[in-house]
Amino acid sequence: RHIYEEFVGRLYHGETKTDECTFRWNRNYSRDEECGVKSEDWRWLHNRGVAELGKGEGQPPTTIFCTMTDETDRLNKESEEAKLTDRYRRMFDGSIIGLAFFDKDFQLLTANQKMREILKFQGEKDPYYYGKKLYELPTFQDLIRNKEVEELHFCTKSIVIERGVNCYMELRVHPIYDEKGELFYITLTFRDVTQERELYLQNKRNERDMRRANEAIKQYETELQYLMDTCNMRFFRTSFSKRECYFFKSLGMPEKVMSFDELIAHFIDSPFRQGLMEPENYFNVPQTTVTKMHPLFHEGEDLQWNHIDSVPYFDEHGQLEGSYGIVRNVTELIEKQR
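The structure corresponding to this sequence follows.
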């Protein structure tokens, strides 16, 4: 109310011949002795006034002409548009993808924060980018010819020497046409895929190395199986906690499992016999022996010579868990030497 009163006062006291003001007015305001203000309906009103001054100097105006306009709908619309614009601006600047708009003459209009980071803008209106047409930028010199643009989506290595840009990018160019089919705007999106590309290449290298390793392992398995088959050899692994020994003819399931007590009974006179009674003290270092013993893998009374190599293995805390190695029947070899 005071805004309107001041507005009328300025005209009445001759401070100005014309004036205007904008104020809020509750057009449902009513003084009622029982219920007071019935409801609220606030409106924005704009008032323009012209004072017709009196004939004598210092005389108050004889008439004040006012025109009042309801500006509520216009101001509400402007407020909504401002909120919408602010919302889209925050979305535009907060995008994780670089975005830029060009006009129909290929001139840069605006670029979001991510685009500025990718292309290393120098200042709000970088003269390098704002001073060049889209088709004059290095990445697009061979893509946009005769000033004609089409829908494009591609990946490339982008180099801008003047700004120190050197990265791999995924780009999309999208022309926007008006109702007459004429070019109106051009949108450009950038996505830096340098790290993504490096991860992809590293995965490809890992896959290649893994494939080669699997091929090598397969070859080693074939060669080891050949040795086991032709040299009458077995691979073994012991568990000190379970006091068991596992013999393998191949890399699959164990061919035979013996307790330490059963294994000790096969030895006649060998350090391994005593060692199996206290394995933690004997097999904590590599051991090798050639000893005469009862057959391990077939029934019979004839003794055989076996060559045994044993190597200890430990858990992740350095605690001795057992040993592994090979046992080979060398009876024929020793008899030939005799």
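Residues 54 and 235 are 124 Å apart (CA to CA).
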